[in-house]
Amino acid sequence: MKKTILAALAAFSLSVSIAQTKSPAIIPIPASLISQSGKFVLNNQVGISVSNQDAAKQVAQQLAQHLSQSTGFKLAINPSLQETGIRLQLLTKPNTNLGTEGYQLKVTEKNVTISANQAAGLFYGMQTLLQLLPNEIVSNKVQPNKTWTIPCVSIDDQPRFGWRGLMLDVSRHFFTKAEVKKFMDDMVRFKFNLLHLHLTDDEGWRIEIKSLPKLTSVGAWRIERNGKWSNSPKAADDSEPKTYGGFYTHEDIKELVQYANERYVTILPEIDVPGHSLAAVAAYPQLSATPGEHKVYQGIPFMNWFAGGFAAIVDNSISPANEFSYEFIDKVMTEVAQLFPFEYIHMGGDECAKNFWEKSPEIKALMAKEGLKTMNEVEGYFVKRVEKIIQSKGKKMIGWDEILEGGVSPTANVMSWRGVKGGIEAAKSKHNVVMSPTTFTYVDYVQGEPSLEGPVYASLRLNKSYQFDPVQEGMDPKYVLGGQANMWSEQIANYRYQQYMMWPRALAIAESVWSPKEKKEWNGFFKRVENQFDRWDLSGDRYAKSVYDAIVTASKDEKGNLVLHIDSEIEGVEHFYSIDESAPDNYYPKYSKAVTLTDDVQTVRIISYRNGKQIGRQINLPVTELKKRAEKK
Ligand code: ACM
To answer: 20 to 30 Å CA-CA from 71: which of 20, 231, 439, 605?
Structure first.
């Protein structure tokens, strides 16, 4: 009897302490996390001990380095596992549940133990451990009077997908080698493991190909144009110096690959052909089916986009009808395959305009010779030959989902971007698929109120990104390698703005590709995101707070009056507005239901508050803009 009462009391006090323990704000949320009472105290007496393997030692060194920046502690690394302190253990008897990237992390008052089958697991365990520490751990400066505690927890964690990617477009904006390294540092914190480098496009060729030197001497440089993309008032004048650009040498790439390896990141190189190839064609005009001079992007429009399609104003494609094109691709792929250890090479294949091909005698001759009936079949012929070249270098080909349109080979792999339908179709045809649909993962799209953001034609809010699921209905999961977010840089002119656009939306993608689907929950996620905001403030990294701004739409009622609607992505936000040309605060009318605007109103101003504090930016919308929004509805 006494025993039962004692057991009941023990169970009660355990449940109370669990209830009182705040759940740690880890992103992506681990597969299993049990909070316990108590904490481990980190001080400069704590050692890091490792099971004696080089890979574990490397992670231990990285951990010591991370911890020293903000704590100032110089933690000793002991090459044999100790009873106390921080312990990194590579399991000699594999735990099959953990796979190649999973880990267990156990924090008690006595020690902190990370166990994994492979070093990548220790590395991800380390990322989780860093997130368990107080936020100041991310500071680049020593925080002298801080007490560093780690809450007791027991975590079992492994990724849902092996392909957890971020794409960086280094063509439209050239990101330096140091910036690409920083990009990797930013991504691995949230357990991304794949960096897709979009290395070539109309705006610049960014990788040295020693056998084709003009690709970088000509193709990597353009005239400098600021302002809105593709909106320069004048084309390049040949007398203007081509000062904008850059490229990675072989040595640079080797350094980046090494940096990636040390962080368990794989780099996927993309050479985008046959479209998006103005820089290549400018360097080697023989590549084009259209005779004449070709220039790297000049700041003026070169493609026409219209409802349901597009056409090139200048031919920016590589000709499928010319043997020189295949010799060229062979040379490029030879060097790319040697430089990047990853088993895949991305060949692009997206958005190839065919209007110049339609007029080209050499394309017509190819069609007659090969029995090709449509322009998509012409592109399909090209893609199949490119795949053979890539395979001849011992690699697998992946391409954007347009490659399905020309009748692709069964071994091709597909990156689905035009919504999810290409991915569904590809998986149904038994192609491996990486999901990166515009509808959830295009982080170059506007993330909040358009009048406050950059000039991009499409919108994607954090809440929508969080709904990303790489496995869509009708897909056999065995064909889904994973997912990624894409950062196109036509309108991204610097690294800080890249961060602003990437984060926090990439957190939503990280959780969608790492965490079990059933663990995802928006309100809980957003609380953890807000904790991450504090961390970025402390580390000096940039991110967007656009999620706090009001979502403003408009409609017309049956009498033709303009009606204002305000919504929010998150709970607990109040919106106050003015219609009298003054700036509102939280004593102004509070929005609670649709507001009919009378004809005399000129501007609506809206501001967001939470718990009496302003959190969103002020939005000022002229009625003319609201009328446009009403028309779009
Ligand atoms: C793409 O966004 N054109 C792949």
So the answer is: 20
